[in-house]
Amino acid sequence: MLKRLFFYFIGFVVLASLAYYGFSRWQASREKVNLWAIVPESAAIVVETNNHEALAVHLSKTGLWQSLEALPVVQDFQEGISLLDTIAPGKQRLARFLDKKNILTSAHVTAEKELGFVFYVPVNSVGEHRFLRTLTENLVKHPDFEQTSRNYNNVLVTDVTYKPLDLHYTYFTYHNNIILSTSAGLIKEVIDKASQDNPVSIAGDYKSANYLNQADVYANVFVNNSEVPAVLNLFLNDDIMPQVRYLSSLCRNGMLQLKLQEDKIFLNGFSNPDLAKTSLHTNLSAVKPKAIRVKDYLPVRTAVLFHFGVQQVTRIKQYQSSVKFPPTPYDATIDSLATTIRQELALAYLESASIRTSPEKVVYARTANKASASMLLSQLIAQAKVSSNSTPYSGTYGGFTIQQLPVPELPGRMFGGLFTGFEESYVVMLDDYLLFTDELSTARSLIDDILAEKVWSKSATQQAFQEQTLQEANFSFFLNTVNAWNILSRYTSEDERESLLQSSSFIRRFNHVSLQYARVEGQYYTSLVLWKPERNSKTSQRNFTVAYSVPFGSRLISKPFAVRNIVDRSREIIVQDSVFALHNITSDGRRTWSDTLSSAVRGDIVQLPLGPDSRLRYLFATANRIHALDGQGRSIENFPFNLTDTVALQRLTIIDYERSGNYNLLADDELGNLHMYDIRGNGIQGWEPRRMDYKLAAAPQYLHVGNRDVILVLLENGYVYALNRNGDAYQGFPFSLKSPVTAGAVAIKVGADLRRTELATVTRYGEVVTFNLQGRVLRRQKLPRPSKNAMFELVQDEYNSAGSYVFVRQELGKVAIFDPERKLLFEKRFVTSAPKLVQFFNFGGGQLIYAITETGPQETYLYDAGGKLIGGAPLESSQPVTIYHNEAENTYSLYKVYRKELQKVNFRLQR
Questions:
Q1: CB-based contacts of 162: which residues, under 8 Å, 6+ apart?
Q2: Is 831 buried (19+), middle (13-18) or exposed (0-12) by CB count in 10 A?
Q3: Is the pTM of this model over 0.90?
Q4: Between the CA of residue 347 and those of 109, 305, 607, what are the distances in Å?
Q5: How far apart are CA 18 and CA 99, in angstroms?
Q6: Pairing mode of beta strands 512-520, 475-480
Q7: Distance between CA 435 and CA 454 in Å, rounded?
Q8: CA-to-CA distance for 576 and 595, rounded, in angstroms?
Q9: In sequence order, what are the residues at sequence separation of 6 or more whose Cβ sits closer than 8 angstroms to the Cβ of residue 85?
Q10: Residues 6+ apart with CB under 8 A from 360
């Protein structure tokens, strides 16, 4: 069965290119009849090819074929062609028969709700007719084939069955052409169309369009937009099909040219608008294409983006969806706010951590009058406050104001059915844009990404991709298949999920996709790009390269702490040796300053902007002191904070309630006491200290939920506390997990309030406990525990502590990694039975690295997302490692310490 998800991306490309690799050399020839005229109207896509020899040379030179032949459907097709070739007569094999022809291939949804193809192949000479006759006779004689003939509408139709695999195809001849398909129903449709007196070409709107006459064009591709949703419905769940159908109604058809490059599959041409009253084209009333300016605010973890560039955004609201919104007292204000939105409207889906997790959504709406939009927004908040008899959340984060709007489906009410799914909305105004999110945590993480410049406009990879796309358009669809993998899996029908997995190597390789339409003189210029980021192949993808080594006079006792240069923000490292001296190492391996402390650093070193100049400073804790150093390793004013000699701190946690720079410093000690100070060293009431009953299992975690500040504390004895700013426990806390905790923190999904905020952790014995901030246990689930020696922990991503995590099981030298859905990812056996140091790095887009350090042999093993050992061997390392990702070059830099040496090691991941 040829119904495969790859067709959703490049099915027509495969059909255009497979012919050569089954057959060898082809060139163009003139058709005796117009084959386009007998293609049924049910065809969703029709591909016309002729210059197959040039295509073959291109595929061979660029290596694109290696990407295509990884697809299972391509392998099946090759095997079928090889089988037919073995029974072809003499030297006149199938390749010769298919040489020098214009061939059409049409794709349809069959009556059986499967994807079927029809091939239209000219027969140009008496010799070719003789070849077909002999081939048919050989099939009849071959014991593995069975052939029968019948009459349909005065046409002789032949059915062929390959008995070992129960494969079928049907064919008939038409004016020196052979028409064949695996679907007998499609053959009937072709015969019915051919039986008409004057059949009309499905591509009649493009009679003069023949891109095959142009250089470097390998196919004409006709797209019948009215049938495309039926094809997509074979792969996608029904619940998103109304949106798919509406978006497809922008155009009724299009004719595109196919071009191929080593790193890009490119189709462009023109499409005719759909003039129906309810179509997207009619509703948009598109005029001049608009620039895509929202790139400054799109995080690099964006998976899917729908972007509309129109004059009046409110016209999109005319979409007649099945969702009906009940009237509200403030509908007039909502409509007025919507009319302020001009030029740009975008809907982004962010990378999802799991197939079972709904993706975070962000709506970007560009306002033409910021003052008016701000006034109407305030008016709407006031009206909603009165109507709901509640006080919506309003707070500052990162210098931006986040406001809650308790209006169900606000984006849908403003912009139409494409923008539903917002139970409530949080709004942030960034320059000329209003950002709507469905969760407070999404708004905050989005601000974090923008402040950290983890956005499209600052991403080297995204900038390179955007150079391949249209800079102005009326409608754009962008897809990052790696970021969107879990979303694709979530919305793919159950029957096709296996096909998605089988095609994953190709889909992930060409992982940047864009489809854009720009209005030009009554038509839409159409561009479809599938792009594969360039990979530097000068160095081995699996080997380590030592960038530099820095020797020290004493043994190193800390991990490499990742920091930024205070002046140019380049990546640097701080390490500590056995005489308690801190050393700063620049990006090129030079030592710039050293500072001797009284004891070892406890926990991490954190950088924060402090002082009147807001320069980055280094903050950290030692046994009984809290330090803050400047860029030269000198203590800044008022530091260090000196605690009593009887205190033995574990780590330092920084809390910034509004992310305004008004820091509180929270330190926990080995007795379970919590000490909190402001940045001037003043003790905070309620934390002098706040005594717990047991030692903490992990650093305290700060959350802001609704209008409440929550400090979450997990103790090693399994008790969980949720504390407010004054150190008082919230109602429902503390409560017990009923089992001790080995190590690790709590995975958090912040909701609109305490009840809807979900937290998860794992006990020492493998029970995953999910609870909310009312102290109620929502679920208890078991991880497999083979023996009583197996112990568990939750390990969070080193760079995104609240959003990404795995479960780790250790048992007598074996380490097993489980994803958040408790699925076993891989298991490894090591030399010793001592506990291992396990680290998890998630760089986004499916780029995962697991670092497992054996403390006895002092070796660190690196594994990729599939559990394959990176580099083929472990690295000498006595402490946890630090890893950076260079996105522009797609390389990784690992920093490790071993005895008296710090090393920077570069490597790549094989994708």
A1: 83, 144, 145, 168
A2: exposed
A3: no
A4: 30, 6, 34
A5: 14
A6: antiparallel
A7: 17
A8: 9
A9: 22, 93, 94, 95
A10: 349, 350, 352, 437, 438, 439, 442, 445
Residue 499's pLDDT is: 60
For residues 304 and 729, what is the distance between their CA atoms, to the nearest angstrom?
41
Q: Which residues contact 758 (CB under 8 A, 6 or more apart)?
A: 748, 749, 751, 770, 771, 772, 778
Q: How far apart are CA 74 and CA 76, in angstroms?
A: 5
- 76 contact partners, CB below 8 Å, separation of at least 6: 2
Decide if 18 contacts 2 (C-beta within 8 A).
no
Contacts with 875 (C-beta within 8 Å, 6 or more apart), sequence order:
544, 859, 860, 861, 862, 881, 894, 896, 905
Alpha carbon distance 861, 815 (integer Å): 12
Which tokens belong to 910? 């094989």
Tell me yes or no: is domain 692-782 CATH 2.40.10: yes
Q: Is the dihedral of CA 812, 814, 820, 824 positive or negative?
A: negative
Per the CB < 8 A criterion, the answer to whether 384 and 405 are in contact is yes
Q: What is the pLDDT of residue 664?
A: 94
Tokens of 438: 């469905």
Nearest to 88 by CA among 26, 35, 130: 130
Q: Under a CB-based contact definition with an 8 Å cutoff, are residues 657 and 704 in contact? A: yes
The answer to whether the CB of 319 falls within 8 A of the CB of 281 is no
Residues 6+ away with beta carbon under 8 Å from 606: 618, 619, 620, 652, 654
Pairwise CA distance, residues 821 & 807, whole Å: 9
The gap from C-alpha 351 to its chain's centroid, in whole angstroms, comes to: 4
Query: Which positions of the chain have pLDDT values less than 70?
Result: 1-32, 51-100, 286, 314-315, 317-323, 493-508, 534-542, 800-803, 910-911
Nearest to 721 by CA among 672, 793, 650: 672
Other beta carbons less than 10 A from residue 426's beta carbon? 25
SS (H, E, C) 564-624: ECCCCCCEEEEEEECCCEEEEECCCCCEEEEEECCCCCEEEEEEEEECCCCEEEEEEECCC
DSSP notation for 275-287: --TTSHHHHHT--
The residue to which tokens 């008496």 are assigned: 126
Which residue has tokens 């080297």?
460
Helix, strand or coil, per DSSP, at residue 659 = coil
For residue 865, the Cα-to-chain-centroid distance in whole angstroms is 14
Two tokens at 702? 């700060």
Q: State the Cα–Cα distance between residues 890 and 532, nearest whole angstrom.
A: 12
pLDDT at residue 695 in the model: 93
Dihedral of the alpha carbons of 420, 422, 428, 434, in degrees to the nearest 10: 10
What is the pLDDT at residue 534?
66
Contact 437, 403 (CB under 8 A): no
Sign of CA dihedral 184, 187, 193, 196: negative
Residue ranges in 416-483 assigned as alpha helix (H): 440-451, 460-466
* Tens of pLDDT, residues 12-36: 333 333 333 333 333 333 335 789 9
Residue 867, classed as helix, strand or coil, is coil
pLDDT, position 840: 95
Strand 545-551's sheet: what is its strand order? Answer: 545-551, 901-907, 891-898, 882-886
3-state secondary structure 700-756: CEEEEECCEEEEEEEECCCEEEEECCCCCECCCCCEECCCCCCCECCEEECCCCCCC
| Per-residue pLDDT at 17 | 37
Q: How far apart are CA 761 and CA 770, in angstroms?
A: 7
What length does the chain have? Answer: 911
HEC profile for 365-397? EEECCHHHHHHHHHHHHHHHHHHHCCCCCEEEE
Segments making up each domain of the chain, as ranges: 6-236, 536-557+789-911, 692-782
